[in-house]
Amino acid sequence: MSEKTEHLVLPITGMTCANCVATVERNLKKLDGVRTASVNLASERASIEFDPSTIDQAKIIERIQRAGYGVATGEADILL
After folding, report:
1. pLDDT tens across 20-38, in order?
2. What CATH number is given for 6-79 in this structure?
3. Is residue 5 scored above 50 in pLDDT?
């Protein structure tokens, strides 16, 4: 696995409770290449550290959507 990681912050829509947060986090952490995932209900954001040589943003967003939640487009922040 590559040593390079990227930090992605995504605005998540559709979360209403702590169970929603747990569902999003659990789904993200199952993805190969995701090192850490933390979701905040109050700010409606997911903070994800991932290996870009293993997984890309599109697959991360797809997993969130498959779990039943939305990702507001045009608001993703990548921190290098």
Report:
1. 999 999 999 999 999 999 9
2. 3.30.70.100
3. yes
* Closest listed residue to residue 63, CA positions, set 28, 26, 22: 28
User: Would you list the DSSP string of 15-47?
Assistant: --SHHHHHHHHHHHHTSTTEEEEEEETTTTEEE
Question: 42 vs 6, 12, 15, 18, CA distance in Å?
Answer: 23, 11, 10, 10
**Contact of 32 with 54, CB cutoff 8 Å:** yes
Rg (CA), the chain: 12
Q: What whole-number distance in Å separates Cα of residue 5 and Cα of residue 22?
A: 23
